[in-house]
Specification:
Blueprint lengths: L3 E4 L5 H11 L5 E5 H16 L4 E7 L3 H11 L6 E5 L4 H18 L4 E5 L7 H6 L6 H14 L4 E3 L5 H8 L4 E4 L18 H7 L3 E4 L1 H4 L4 H13 L1
Parallel strand pairs: 1-2, 1-8, 2-3, 3-4, 4-5, 5-6, 6-7, 7-8
Helix pairs in contact: 1-2, 3-4
Bound molecules: the ligand O=c1ccn([C@@H]2O[C@H](COP(=O)(O)O)[C@@H](O)[C@H]2O)c(=O)[nH]1.
Length: about 230
C-alpha cells in the first residue's frame, strides 16, 4: 500500500484537477481540505477525487450537535478519512462517531474519523502562547488518548510523536502524519517535521504531503520519487 496522501491545497478547480491527474498514479490517495472545499463545494470535491481514496481534511471543531451535522452533511462524499479537532472534547468526538455510524448504516461506507491533536505548525512556544499545557509531545499524547477513548479511528500528529504514540496506542490506531519534508524541501510554516522514510519507520500509518509535491517543478516526478524512497 502506498501510504502517501497528496494534499491539494488550492481554491482553483482546474489546478486541483490537473494535480490530481498527475499525482494520483503515484500516491495512495488525495487530500482536499478547507481551502478547496470552501471554494468549490461538495460536487467538485467529489469530481476531483474521482475513484481515488479521499481524505477530507475539514478539521471540524464546534459544539457536538453542529459537528455531528457536519459529518452527516458530507457523508455522501464517502471519504476514507475525515478530520475533527480533538480539542473540541470527548462529547464532540463521540457525537461525530455516532453520526458517522448513522451515515454508514445509510451509505454502506464507514468514514474513518481522525482527531487533530497539535498542529504541526506549532511548537512548544506557540502552545504556551495560547495557554495550552506543553511540551507539544505531552499535549499530543493527552489528546490522542482522549481521541481513542472517544471512539476515533486515529489521530493526526507530527512525525516527532509517532514512535511514542505507536508504543502507547497499539498497531491498529491510525497515526496520520503531515509535517513531512523530503531532504532539501522547504519547511514553509511547518515546525515539527521529518523525512518520509523516517516517519514510516517510526510507525506512521499514512503520510500527508502537500507542497513538496504540488510546488515541485514536476509534481508527478516528486510523488514518484517519494514512493520510490518509501519502497526502497
Ligand atoms: O497538524 C496538521 C494538520 C493538517 N495539516 C495539513 O497537511 C498538509 C501539509 O501540507 P504541506 O504543504 O506538506 O506542509 C496541509 O494540507 C495541512 O492543512 C498539517 O500540515 N498539519
Amino acid at each position: 500500500m502506498n501510504p502517501v496522501f497528496a494534499a491539494l491545497d488550492t481554491t482553483d478547480l482546474d489546478c486541483a484537477r490537473g494535480l490530481a491527474a498527475a499525482v494520483a498514479p503515484h500516491v495512495g490517495g488525495l487530500k482536499l481540505g478547507l481551502e478547496f472545499f470552501l471554494a468549490q463545494g461538495l460536487a467538485n470535491t467529489a469530481a476531483v477525487a474521482g475513484a481515488t481514496p479521499l481524505f477530507l481534511d475539514l478539521k471540524l471543531h464546534d459544539i457536538p450537535n453542529t459537528v455531528a451535522g457536519g459529518v452527516r452533511a458530507i457523508a455522501g462524499l464517502k471519504p476514507e478519512f475525515l478530520t475533527i479537532h480533538t480539542a473540541g472534547g470527548s462529547a464532540m468526538m463521540r457525537a461525530a462517531v455516532d453520526a458517522a455510524a448513522e451515515a454508514a448504516a445509510q451509505t454502506g461506507h464507514r468514514i474513518k474519523l481522525l482527531g487533530v491533536t497539535v498542529l504541526t505548525s506549532l511548537d512548544d512556544g506557540d502552545l504556551d502562547a495560547v495557554g495550552q499545557r506543553g511540551p507539544a509531545a505531552d499535549q499530543v499524547r493527552r489528546l490522542a488518548l482522549l481521541a481513542r477513548a472517544s471512539g476515533l479511528d486515529g489521530v493526526i500528529c507530527s512525525p516527532m510523536e509517532v514512535a511514542a504514540l505507536r508504543a502507547d496506542l497499539g498497531a491498529d490506531f491510525q497515526l496520520v502524519v503531515p509535517g513531512i519534508r523530503p531532504a532539501g524541501a522547504a519547511l514553509g510554516d511547518q515546525k515539527r517535521v521529518m523525512g518520509p522514510r523516517d516517519a514510516i519507520a517510526a510507525g506512521a500509518s499514512r503520510l500527508v504531503i502537500g507542497r513538496p509535491i504540488t510546488e515541485a517543478p514536476d509534481p508527478a516526478a516528486a510523488a514518484r520519487a517519494i514512493a520510490a524512497e518509501l519502497a526502497a
